[in-house]
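Hi Y.,

Following your request, here is the sequence exactly as I used it, all 399 residues.
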Amino acid sequence: MRRSVNFTETMQSDFWTNSSAFPSTREAALDRLVEFEKTASRYGRDRNHVVPGHQNVSRLSPAIRHRLLTETEVAKHILHRYAFSTVEKFLQEVYWRRYWKSWLALRPQVWTDYLRDLDALEVCEAAQKVMAGEGEVEIMNDFAHELVETGYLHNHARMWFAGYWIHAMGLPWQLGADFFYRHLLDADPASNTLSWRWVAGLQTRGKTYLARRSNIEKFLHPDLLQGREGGLELLANHQGLNPSAFIRPEIKEPAYKHLAVDPSLVSGFWLHSDDLSVDPKCHEVFLSEDLPASEVKAQWLREALDDVESRLTGHCVERAPITGLLAWAEKKKLAQIIAYRPEIGVLNDQLIEIEKALEKANIRLVLLSRGEDDEFQSLATAGFFGFWKKIESQIRALK
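Below is the corresponding structure, written out as tokens. Let me know if you'd prefer a different format.
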């Protein structure tokens, strides 16, 4: 039974009714970055504490995930004010997302294996109860409600919830990852899937993450925990589930078609939710709108797409689901469509069928990649901190 006073209700007056909590426009994201800049020097000290309003973190992750802001823009802005050493922890957290995307791009089979496993699983009654916020650990119930109702969880709360799901409840990590992916505003296939694999002990040999009562009591603000201690005793001594077989995924050369833009052809630009940075190379623009089932996520993305469309002044824009891409191209008599390459994930999975349909209509699809992204991808061969050491000099130079 859901408590009459829950996590989101506790914070509603000072946080959840604030429409700018998770900026869905570029202007609002830039404003939030300026505001966060004032406290960025304290991020390393405060970031693990889950407090009312989440004021100690940037709350820019949805904007960065969809590239209303880029990692480089955020890093440049923060380094304009602070020494690298002062804000290194924050910068690392910004680039974790880029690392995860790069890591998965080199090992795409991890994504396809996850989808295959997920498709074979049934959502059992225990999983349904935990997702509905009706489990035995009250604070985890509140985290489930917060996730569904707001599209957000603090990173530490995500770790606690995933550790509880996998190691205390013994539920398949793939179902938990899917639950987060469907509801988190900032979820991308790489960061979400690989983080759940890490908690499960599949991403790094010998490393699992347990949701410990002592850790929750240390880092969760007392006002948020008070009255929600029920079931914490279940987390006191539970042990991690050891993966039956740890397999280090093989690095594979991405099977991309490397077509060059032909400037002699009539072209249009396809903008999609993996990269909403507005710099189309063509007058004709197709803005694909494929909204998730979660109304909270759908509303955020709707607002982001509205913002992108409003900034495409001087362009002829058509906004429709991706299934309308071919019809748009034929209506505009295009011979070539240009787009930034989607990341490994849901949108990328549709590329084969999209390319087939376009080729049948004699329309080329040219997928661009950013030089920085390509470089970072080549460096994600091992763990994050090795990756960070390789890119650190570039980040420092952004000042």
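Confidence is low (pLDDT under 50) at residues 1-19.

Thanks again,
Q.
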